[in-house]
Amino acid sequence: MRAGPPGRGLSGRVSVPGDKSISHRALMFGALAVGTTEITGLLEGEDVLRTAAAMRALGAEVERVAPGHWRVAGRGVGGLVEPADVLDMGNSGTAARLICGLLAGHPLFAVLTGDASLRGRPMRRVTEPLSAVGARFTGRAGGRLPLAVEGAAEPVPLDYVLPVPSAQVKSAVLLAGLCARGITRVEEPEATRDHTENMLRHFGAVVRVEAEGHRRVIELEGQPELRAAPVVVPADPSSAAFPLVAALLVPGSAVTVEGVGLNPLRTGLFATLREMGADLAVSNARVEGGESVGDLTATFSALRGVEVPPGRAPSMIDEYPVLAVAAAFARGTTRMRGLGELRVKESDRLAATVALLAAAGVTAVVEGDDLVVTGDGSPAPGGGTVATQMDHRIAMSALVMGLAAARPVAVDDTGFIDTSFPGFAAMMNGLAGGDAIAPAAAP
Ligand code: S3P
């Protein structure tokens, strides 16, 4: 595909798909609850469909009632059954790591695999603590998938300090803790997204959270009876980021994205864009299904470079590629600090982001774990081809770059966009009023 300047501003009101993190968790908690959980607004992207298939393979009844409306009849905590075949998690690190936590607490055998991107990602960050719970893991060198899991018959509750700020690791330990007798305690030096804690409470578990600055301690009482509860999934702020940043960069634009999740542990990008001078307004703020949501309107803005502190990284960890695109249009230097974790995402996102910018004629440098982008306030040149590297967010960021740059930008493979944002190109074209994103002519 290729994205080029639309010749006019982007305008309109759109909805983006449901939150990926919440969608995975809704299916998993539905499978662990007693009774039938109704989920609305579920993201029907490839990643979440893998979780749905895995929950079926583990014995839950999972049914699609209507678009975004799913029903899960659960088996109760400790009630999952041994899957008859290998569980293929596709491109999804969240699915793979959280399911390791689920499996660790059940006395069963399972094998997890995924696509080439997922098979390259580190799993020790979950298998290490989950081994202390009593599960046994056998994987490839470096603790990578495919991974064989023997869950624990009598899982032990952990007292664990997260060595990396990762909601996936925190969630895996808490999910294993559901099956353990006693209190599982997780300490995180930097607060990460808290959808697991929120949903545990929503399904009836007892969870205590003590916050002290950025540090949090979470305690879960093991072996609760989780009861089915309806889940309303808000629109994903990580997906809303793409049309909103595009509107900030394409002159004459004003775009509203409706019902976006505004959980404070997810909104680092929006705070950063405002510091850069973005006109980004929230209206109709409300609470839906226990999460804060609002309509977000972005209007074309002249941006300036800022320093993004490392402590903000967990609240915008998936948004750095598109922030780097915005930084290329800002006047001055944007220094994004403390991005080491980007090296182990769907791609090495630090390198992939630098390559994306280079393809569009923008120089960016990596200094240690910092990404530094300097612009002069004029549009990036554009004109190159970006390698997606099996990473949906690199593909979408590159297409946003193409909409705003002086010349079109091509992307080698946009298939992975369906992992998190089915319908992305059509939605952006609707805002652009034409075929700004279209198949690229054969080279
Ligand atoms: C997620 C946590 C983050 C994020 C991912 C979703 C989650 O990963 O990048 O897209 O749903 O818990 P890490 O836990 O590796 O930071």
Automatic annotation (TrEMBL):
GO terms for cellular component: cytoplasm. Keywords: Amino-acid biosynthesis, Aromatic amino acid biosynthesis, Cytoplasm, Transferase. Its EC number is 2.5.1.19. 3-phosphoshikimate binds at K20, S21, R25, S166, Q168, D318, K345. Pathway: Metabolic intermediate biosynthesis; chorismate biosynthesis; chorismate from D-erythrose 4-phosphate and phosphoenolpyruvate: step 6/7. The active site is at D318. GO terms for molecular function: 3-phosphoshikimate 1-carboxyvinyltransferase activity. It catalyses: 3-phosphoshikimate + phosphoenolpyruvate = 5-O-(1-carboxyvinyl)-3-phosphoshikimate + phosphate. Monomer. HAMAP family: EPSP_synth. This is 3-phosphoshikimate 1-carboxyvinyltransferase.
